[in-house]
Design goal:
Elements (H helix, E strand, L loop, with lengths): L1 H20 L13 H9 L1 E6 L2 H4 L21 H10 L4 E7 L28 H12 L2 E6 L12 H18 L5 E5 L6 E3 L6 E3 L9 H11 L4 E3 L7 E2 L14 E2 L14 E2 L2 E6 L17 H11 L5 E7 L8 H17 L11 E2 L21 E2 L7 E20 L7 E9 L5 E3 L13 E20 L4 E8 L9 E4 L4 E5 L5 E5 L16 E2 L4 E8 L10 E5 L7 E4 L17 E4 L5 E18 L10 E8 L2 E7 L10 E21 L5 E4 L1 E5 L2
Parallel strand pairs: 1-2, 1-12, 2-3, 3-4, 4-7, 8-11, 11-12
Antiparallel strand pairs: 5-6, 9-10, 13-15, 14-19, 15-18, 15-19, 16-17, 16-18, 20-21, 21-23, 22-24, 24-25, 26-28, 27-32, 28-31, 28-33, 29-30, 29-31
Amino acid sequence: MKIVTKLFFGLMACAFVSCRDTVRAPEPIYPVPTPAQVAWQKMETYAFVHFGLNTFNDLEWGYGDTPAETFDPTDLDAEQWVRIIQAAGFKGIILTAKHHDGFNLWPSKYTEYSVKNSPWREGKGDMVRDLVDACRKYGLKFGLYLSPWDRNHAEYGGPEYVEYFHNQVRELLNEYCDSVELFEYWFDGANGGDGYYGGAREKRSIDPTTYYRYEQAVESIHSKFPDAMIFGGTEPTIRWVGNEEGWAGETDWAPYKVGDNPHYGSPDGTQWLPAECDVSIRPGWFYHPREDHQVRTLSHLVDIYYRSVGRNATLLMNFPVALDGRIHSLDSARIMEWRQALDEQFRTDLLEGIVPAASDIRGRKFGAERMTDGRWESYWATSDSVTTASVTFRFDTLTNLNRLLLQEYIPLGQRVSRFGIEYLDSLDNWRPVETPDTMSTIGYKRIIRFASVATKGVRVNFLQSRGPLCINNIEAYHAPVLMVEPTIRRTGQGVVSIGAVPGAEIRYTTDGTTPTLVSPVYREPFEWAAPGEVRAIVIDPVLGTISPVATRKFDIPTAAFRVVKPAKPRTEVIFDGNPTTVWYLSLEEGRELIFDLDRPRMLTGLTYTPDMSRWGSGPVSKYRIYVDGRKAAAGEFSNIKANPVEQTVVFSEPISGRRIRFVVEATADEAPQAAFAEVTVLTE
């Protein structure tokens, strides 16, 4: 009887397993990505390259009237770009073939405003061809940026320009993209406004949703490259994340509908539009020599990676090619440091080979081991009725960790909207990890950073989901401490302070040289009122490791500056050396900020810092500047709305004076007030 009973239950168990083995995959939760969108998201990081007339005229947005003859790189080397970008781990390059100024980096047959009328290679150069050939040689994917707005073309705003625009789309596709994979086509969102327009020098407005006939342009692109992603226009397949700082929202849904905040998307989105985070390695998108000391710090770049790729987005990192036609050595050195730091942070997956225990399993084909088998196409799934579950990993020994990486199987849709992470301490108590991150969405990839813990195990609790769970990968790491460079500030009175983590040793210099282990030790704020450069490093007192060098350039102290007009309270915050304090000029009451220096000085320029806070308003976009009644400069702060950083105005020639008149002609967001966080003058 016992033998018969065992046989009966054995057959029943086999039948149960067999039944579970035939369980179908979960039904998709729409919208879902196309295979092309999945392949694009798997690229994770790729590069932008900005280079053109703006580079040689020290501009961000050219007006369209700078002569083609000013484009003349002396040592242009597209292969150097590709080698650096590939070595840094990027999977492709997008080239700005034409920016808003209308200048073409290829010898287009549809315009004379191109490299064919520049002295570069005696008019026979072709930047697009150079980069296509380099990408093919080194195996990188290729992308194109073609600005719809053209501040040079005489017919912009009329139907003739639209035909020109489409001719150029087709020309680039047919003449350059036969030998390389086109992975993305970029249509910038800046449209209409002031321009040269063939000599008209006027403002032109268009309706971008209808004027460019984007649908026809996308049809041309997809007829040749059906898998190419489209950025911008009326038929995008990916979305702009809503800033140029390189971060996505901690909650980031790929589903999206019109009206959603681009930082976050929404679970009820009707279209799969994952976010792309674009950011430049320097403050500007084009190269400016004055920004050589403003290459983003290593810690900032690493943080950008976590807040873009680590938040279900991709990272598009821009390299402003220098005047000689090569990526600057400072930029290349910093991006290699970035690559090395990321490799160190993700060197050893602590969960590799561990089969977790899951609170629910859909069937053997969807077992918990699918999360650690290294195969992207396999995934753990729960039963249809199970939308909350947990998975637990156990370690053989007490293990340190401070990173957790999670991925959903997005071909079936994005599901998780809330989760939590716990660790098992040495006393066998489960405790939540300490992290500032909001553990909400996952999507293609989510990386959570938290304080290091010594643990016997880690547990992920999936607390809310739009359907049964589909998790295809979980990894854990113990990332080494990244030596963060110190912060350097100077008050309006000329007092310098240098900040770092408690207990660290700081060495600094004020003569422009690189600090070393024998440089002066920073102990307390010090007075330093001279123009010049402060550099500093942090030294770990235990390990002896050294941080990257922090650099700040200063001119004369600003505390003695006094606002003459308007006579309003709090205007002194403009000169306090703190960019987080902001004063607003009401444009209804007047458009002038007039201030006096401490004494007459020989001035070479001026800097202006807008409100740089996340939701700041009123950045000045057009200005006139006078020194003692003489006009010193006039122009625009291009792209300041999307990239609200310190702006530098260099006078055409030095001017001696004391009274500065700053006239606001327009704000980038048409706000009724202009924001002033900091204003300084340049004397060198």
